[in-house]
Design brief:
This protein has 315 residues and is of the alpha/beta class. The chain has helices spanning 8-19, 32-50, 100-110, 129-143, 162-176, 201-206, 215-225, 229-232, 262-274, 295-298, 303-313, and strands at 58-64, 67-73, 80-86, 113-117, 150-160, 185-189, 250-256, 279-284. It contains eleven helices and eight strands.
Length: 315
């Protein structure tokens, strides 16, 4: 087990969180509404302090199936790539604002369309609610592809943490659904790919260190979203249990060294590669879970965004 050498801004951020008694994402003794309010405030503050907000020419808000989505488009040219983005939060927290800054930057850097999508949250909405909503959002993109100035054969799913689980689920869903084209690619940012998270070495090493995400948080999220062990074992959500990974789209996986989820992200990439899928896995040293929400505190030059752009431009 290594000791971190975090950048000073990240050390300061973790220190302030500790002073405020926020060593975990979840505070079990608080009601879910208060937990959500606290986490929303923290996400907005982190974005404001440690991220950059760029202006986009066209931003539109929509509602579909009771869920909100927001589209970002910087040009009117036709047949653009379309990125369907799902925020993280253990299937329990956050909304469109959590990754608004990064959706803007991905749109601008890649001159593409980004669709920032919400989904129903646990514990009120158990599995497969979020996964069903993700599939519905993909259908919405297909049905509105001309409105978006997009190309239905150039759709990329992207997400962070639990949102990466939804993005990964859609890769197999699109492959197996003959009514829609296969995805062009998927980008999985510190993904939650295995419900059995405790078995991985990174979880054993860093799951109790309070580097943003803890094993206690992961267990809380798991129990909140899944009503039964059978649901938790379902390969739609437990991506590592998928029997067939062949013909999945090109994949970029970003993992953080001091993240309990690190090793399962790496292993999922290895499983995809063994199935013949083109995979690029980028391992960020001295990084923690959630780095997309405080990029400037974690990286010198927003390296993950540049790595995402390099991957997308090569497609």
């Amino acid at each position: 087990m290594k000791k971190p050498n975090f950048p000073w801004k990240l050390r300061f951020l973790l220190f302030i969180s500790k002073l405020r008694g926020r060593n975990r994402i979840v505070t079990p003794e608080l009601p879910i509404e208060e937990n959500r309010e606290n986490n929303d405030k923290a996400a907005r503050a982190a974005n404001h302090l440690y991220n950059k907000k760029v202006e986009i020419a066209h931003i539109e808000n929509y509602e579909f199936g009771g869920q909100k989505l927001r589209t970002y488009r910087n040009s009117d040219k036709p047949n653009q790539k379309v990125i369907l983005y799902f925020h993280g939060g253990g299937m329990m927290f956050y909304d469109l604002e959590a990754q608004d800054y990064n959706c803007r930057r991905v749109c601008l850097d890649n001159d593409c369309v980004v669709v920032n999508a919400n989904y129903r949250l646990a514990p009120e909405n158990k599995f497969p609610a979020a996964h069903d909503d993700a599939a519905a959002m993909l259908n919405w993109v297909h049905e509105n592809i001309e409105l978006l100035h997009g190309d239905k054969c150039k759709i990329i799913t992207m997400g962070d943490s639990a949102g990466a689980n939804l993005a990964g689920y859609l890769a197999g869903h699109a492959r197996d659904n003959k009514k829609i084209p296969d995805l062009l690619a998927q980008v999985l940012i510190y993904p939650w790919t295995d419900v059995n998270s405790a078995q991985y070495q990174s979880a054993k090493d860093y799951g109790d260190k309070n580097y943003v995400l803890s094993m206690a948080d992961i267990e809380f999220f798991t129990n909140a979203y899944f009503a039964s062990p059978e649901d938790a074992a379902n390969p739609s959500a437990n991506l590592m249990a998928q029997a067939n990974l062949k013909a999945m789209p090109q994949t970029l996986i970003l993992v953080a060294e001091f993240d309990p989820l690190c090793d399962q992200g790496v292993e999922y990439g290895e499983k995809l590669r063994a199935a013949g899928v083109g995979v690029q896995t980028i391992y960020y040293k001295n990084a923690v879970h959630g780095f997309m929400s405080f990029l400037d505190a974690q990286f010198k030059n927003s390296e993950p965004l540049h790595d995402i752009t390099a991957f997308i431009s090569a497609l």
